[in-house]
Amino acid sequence: MSRKRIGLLAVFLPLALLVALYWLTPGLFVQPLVQANRALSDLSAHQVEVGDHTIHYLEGGSGAETLVLLHGIFAEKDHWVEFARPLSEDYHLIIPDIPGFGESTRLPEASYHYGDQVQRLRAFLETLGQGRVHLAGNSMGGGIAARYALEYPEQIQSLAFIGAPHGIDSPTQSEMERRLASGEEAPLIAESHEEFDAMMDFLFVDVPYVPYPLYQHFSEHAVSRAESNKRLWRQQQDDPFYMQHHLDVLKAQNVPVLTLWGDQDRIFHASGVQVLEKHLPEGEHRVMEDTGHLPMMEHPWRTAEFYRSFLESR
């Protein structure tokens, strides 16, 4: 065999092995891919004990002001990483796995109602020595953020709904609300990989690229937790419009508010923006074109620039 062929084999065989491992044993690549993505946003993983929960979180960036980003139901902290990238040079970032989700503790008998989550968030931020922060959330995270602002307005520099918040009764019924009304138990719980694929199509206009090992990991995690997720889903349905019932109180507290709501959100119809415009007229409310329920994932840079503009205008 010629030296040229030997050289080609020396290059080709390791590469072929790597490709085979990537597709056949994707679990080997999950942590390297996750850590590399976090590093690009100057974020690193930490954990802290808060009461009877271990809370995992990402922290990084630089700046005098702190942004706390709260994910939605059945989501996790890494869903914010691309969104955080253009913000990390100018802001200190804290991105937790909300208790009961992601890597944070989920206790079988614990309550994960919004009121309980607000108290855990308060204890978490106190443990980290945080004072006033900019609080932003998506979906469930938006509902928790709003309730936190209602209970602790002195701790909030601004409040942002990055994607539709849970807690607004949109004038036009959403597709998810129609599915629930028809008897479907929980459209955001996947009990198979096929249902996970369908859920991704439901959440996005265009599903963002996710490397195969990570996509498989997310799918397996969602399916493995399906039964447990149903309990948390039911808890989220208690007093579903608590936020809307207290918008006038939020207005009186003069907390600056930003809303970024996807025009093609199938979870919460974009007509909900009208409710926020009516009750929080001093806020900045924007409907994002060609966007679903998770703008920080579907259009991370554009969404981050809208958020930066809002922060700089305060």
Secondary-structure map:
Layout (H helix, E strand, L loop, with lengths): L2 H22 L2 H14 L2 E8 L2 E9 L4 E5 L10 H4 L7 E5 L17 H14 L5 E7 H12 L4 E10 L9 H7 L11 H11 L8 H13 L1 H11 L5 H4 L1 H6 L4 E6 L9 H8 L4 E5 L6 H4 L1 H13 L2
Shape: globular
Query: Structural class, from helix and strand content?
Result: alpha/beta
Largest sheet: 8 strands, mixed
What is the CATH homologous superfamily assignment?
Alpha/Beta hydrolase fold, catalytic domain
Using the coordinates above, name the CATH class: Alpha Beta
| Proper CATH architecture | 3-Layer(aba) Sandwich
Q: How many β-strands, per DSSP?
A: 8
The neighbouring-strand order within the major sheet is 1-2-4-3-5-6-7-8
What fraction of residues sit in β-strands?
A: 15-25%
- Level of helix content? 40-55%
End-to-end gap = 70 Å
Which residues sit in consecutive blocks of at least 5 with pLDDT less than 50?
none
* Rg (CA only): 21 Å
N to C succession of SSEs: HHEEEHEHEHEHHHHHHEHEHH
Work out the helix count.
Answer: 14
What are the key terms here?
Rossmann fold, alpha/beta, 46% helix, Epox_hydrolase-like, 314 residues, eight-stranded mixed beta sheet
